[in-house]
């Protein structure tokens, strides 16, 4: 009897194992479960001609020129592909550590807070192609190449001022993230490619509190359609983008962008439309965009326009010296009475030394700023940005 039971168990166990594998999805290798990521961008900034209101109801006054060291961006996170067609991405940030409040750079001050900057999952619906991929979570709605390009990838000293206006108009905050669902994909045939994204998102941050949009609710709808001629930008679909392909690409991508949101407690409707372009031809890198921002506040219409153009050229001086001189200009124009108004202008000239592509980089740039009205350059009352020279160091792991 004992031998019979042993024989029966030996026959039954493989059958049970086989049955389990027909019911459950098998995970992939352990390495793909959790892949750690870390990056840090250190800045040394010398600010000139900054003005601030130092006493209540007082005038704008010049503050001392100053040297400031800060961690502009510091990130720690994990990503993984635990199942063949399922992935996740989680990134924490502790940006702007050490930033002087009177620095001419555009950012807040961080006293040590850590927060979530990206947290999303991806499901590849079309298993044998990249035609349909669903992304769900906290991430950037897919409009504006400048907004959806990685924060650490920009070849100007910092991202253009245009992205801040686009993001704040769209989701009410400069980080530009929102919780939502996006369907996207891409298809490439020879030297022609199509990339698309359509998404629906919460838009709590434009309401009277961060918990609700208020009495009236309308989702944020966002979409982007990109056409590529020549070499593709990416081998696989992604919601993150690049600018410099280090002489490996000959191609141009042109994209149409748009968002729409109907009534909330803040506005009657809110729209964004625009176009962005990326051209890479061997050493040459050119990108730019132009966007129209529209909002209706109970019958009063406000409009603004913003955009940038940026030019970089890769120079290989000798072994291990890969330099890129860069020029950029970025502008904003807004109607009187809008959320932001007047003019905001930024000019950037500098050079990047790539020691290991975007993973290890040194940058030296000078930034001029000008404008009037009520915007990121000045509100006409409490601050006015100065110019600055910046030295940056980037390490991505």
Automatic annotation (TrEMBL):
Record key words, sorted: Signal
Pfam families, alphabetized: Porin_O_P
Source organism, top-level taxon: Bacteria
UniProt signal peptide: 1-19
Gene3D superfamilies in the cross-refs: Porin
Statement: the UniProt record of this protein carries the keyword Aminoacyl-tRNA synthetase: no
Protein name per UniProt: Porin
Taxonomic source organism: Rhodocytophaga rosea
């Amino acid at each position: 009897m004992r031998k019979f039971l042993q024989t029966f168990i030996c026959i039954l166990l493989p059958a049970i194992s086989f049955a389990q594998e027909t019911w459950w999805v098998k995970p992939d290798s352990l390495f793909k479960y959790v892949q750690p990521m870390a990056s840090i961008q250190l800045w040394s900034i010398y600010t000139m001609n900054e003005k601030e209101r130092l006493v209540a109801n007082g005038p704008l006054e010049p503050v001392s020129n100053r040297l400031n060291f800060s961690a502009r961006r510091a990130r720690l996170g994990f990503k993984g592909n635990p199942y063949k067609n399922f992935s996740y991405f989680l990134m924490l940030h502790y940006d702007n550590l050490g930033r002087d409040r009177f620095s001419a750079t555009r950012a807040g001050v961080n006293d040590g807070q850590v927060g979530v900057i990206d947290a999303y999952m991806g499901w590849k619906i079309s298993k044998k192609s990249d035609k349909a991929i669903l992304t769900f979570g906290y991430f950037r709605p897919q409009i504006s190449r400048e907004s959806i390009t990685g924060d650490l990838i920009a070849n100007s000293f910092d991202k253009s001022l245009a992205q801040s206006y686009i993001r704040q108009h769209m989701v009410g905050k400069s980080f530009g993230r929102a919780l939502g669902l996006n369907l996207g994909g891409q298809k490439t045939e020879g030297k022609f490619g199509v990339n698309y994204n359509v998404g629906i998102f919460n838009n709590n941050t434009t309401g009277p509190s961060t918990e609700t949009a208020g009495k009236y609710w309308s989702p944020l709808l966002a979409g982007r359609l990109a056409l590529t001629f020549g070499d593709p930008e990416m081998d696989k679909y992604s919601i993150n983008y690049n600018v410099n392909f280090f002489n490996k690409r000959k191609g141009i991508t042109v994209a149409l962008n748009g968002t729409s949101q109907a009534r909330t407690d803040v506005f009657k409707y809110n729209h964004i439309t625009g176009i962005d372009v990326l051209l890479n031809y061997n050493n040459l890198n050119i990108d730019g965009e132009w966007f129209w921002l529209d909002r209706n506040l109970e019958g009063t219409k406000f409009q603004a326009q913003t955009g940038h153009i940026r030019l970089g050229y890769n120079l290989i001086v000798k072994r291990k010296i890969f330099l890129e001189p860069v020029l950029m200009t970025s502008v904003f124009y807004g109607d009187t009475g809008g959320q932001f108004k007047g003019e905001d202008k930024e000019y950037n000239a500098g050079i990047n030394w790539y020691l290991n592509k975007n993973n290890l980089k040194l940058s030296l740039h000078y930034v001029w700023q000008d404008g009037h009205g009520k915007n990121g350059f000045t509100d006409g009352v409490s601050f006015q940005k100065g110019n600055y020279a910046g030295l940056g160091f980037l390490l991505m792991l």
